[in-house]
């Protein structure tokens, strides 16, 4: 009997302890779902049923008339923001109240998390000020030739892929391109990852986003008992050790001094030469109200932490966003053709070479990239934490320190209130008056305000260069293994991890050889944009062009004689010549067949 009473007493105390904060939003008259004792509204997230992106999106659309929605992250109150004016307050106007991301990890235990993304307070401000010079327009232009080299290697890899059937894991292809770019612009070394899928740097990128089940389980435990974050290290030191070895080796090669390469490593070495660095505090004030001066001395491990976030953030955003863009274009061939025409026209003005100015003129490609990031933002939500008591003027409600603030990017960017037909891939929504009328707080793939992504312009430039390189040489089409709707990993909130569970595939189809055949037979300069206006004089001339195209492919590789490749090839001929010509004869198949070939349609 005593044991029974003790058990009941312990359960009662546990219940009271775990629910002690569950009246927080009721007292403030903020609507919310009923919390589950101990787990709050995070039960499905903690047990891997739904990602937090999905949960926050559910809450957003469940309460369409509310400006905010309360929730409980285990035992702690949080607030999902639905109103764009309040989003603006949190990210910009009242930044001093909501500057922390509040990841809650112990930097001494996990030193790589002492980076710009995870840092808060004075450490964040100091790092932000000192790292910003790495991303000026002049630095971006200086980096561009390195990006072009990576893009050219990407094209060469694409040519090899087409000679082997054309099917490719587009996520892996763009991840390797992005890794090459990071190596060139960040580390100052050629990684050659595009040609070597098992390169050490590609493996490092995989491990950065590798979250085994044990680790995912511990993240769930941390939600319930957040203090454990400060004493338990979940991730192994494998990534830290590998990155430390690479960075220290580069430091030694440069004698711990900038070498004039203008890459990210050079910027970090410039910081070490300054010794202690200082800034005005955003956490501490003097008696007269002025901010105190604070100073830090950056250790080698602090510099390595910045290299880690340069690698991880650049890899995650660029590789996932470019992969999703190609995926969407594969299912929207008309838009893809428009973009390819634009690429041809723009490059024709720049000696048919990719360059910084040419990339800046690819407006339709840029819009397609933006539209992909609208539908599939790399992070599904932004998190902030209230740093001091703050009243939200739109609500007249005061928020206390420690309350988590969630801005559900995925939900906002697919809300028909802000985007017409929000689930439709429509790049031109960013053009003209419609584009001008988009509220900048309704489109947040890189965040907004003082904590917006520091490398957004670099990532955008590199991504557009990679996409232009692919689409200039190839057409992307869905393969038999390409899903139309991409699944979500419930254990994660980053797109890259979703893609690692999927590895969606597309077919790369070369776009040049049909044009080459036309050029040789007809003496015309052919671009996709003017094929439509090309007039063939006779059936015989059309017949010769088709036969020459078929023979060119068959002679170049017997691998094209497979049945699947024939279907692909006939579709290519039809698309490249007849769909875009003003006259499309119905008897195409009979006269296009070569008498000496056995064609399987």
TrEMBL record:
Location(s), subcellular: Endoplasmic reticulum membrane; Microsome membrane
Catalytic activity field: an organic molecule + reduced [NADPH--hemoprotein reductase] + O2 = an alcohol + oxidized [NADPH--hemoprotein reductase] + H2O + H(+)
Primary location: endoplasmic reticulum
Enzyme class: oxidoreductase
GO molecular function: heme binding; iron ion binding; oxidoreductase activity, acting on paired donors, with incorporation or reduction of molecular oxygen, reduced flavin or flavoprotein as one donor, and incorporation of one atom of oxygen
Matches recorded under SUPFAM superfamilies: Cytochrome P450
Membrane topology of this protein: Peripheral membrane protein
Protein residues bound to heme: 453
EC code(s) of this entry: 1.14.14.1
Cellular component GO terms, alphabetical: endoplasmic reticulum membrane
Database matches in Gene3D superfamilies: Cytochrome P450 (1.10.630.10)
CDD domains: CYP6-like
Keywords: Endoplasmic reticulum, Heme, Iron, Membrane, Metal-binding, Microsome, Monooxygenase, Oxidoreductase
A Pfam entry, by short name: p450
Cofactor needs: heme
Protein family per UniProt: Belongs to the cytochrome P450 family.
Protein name: unspecific monooxygenase
Organism field: Leptosia nina
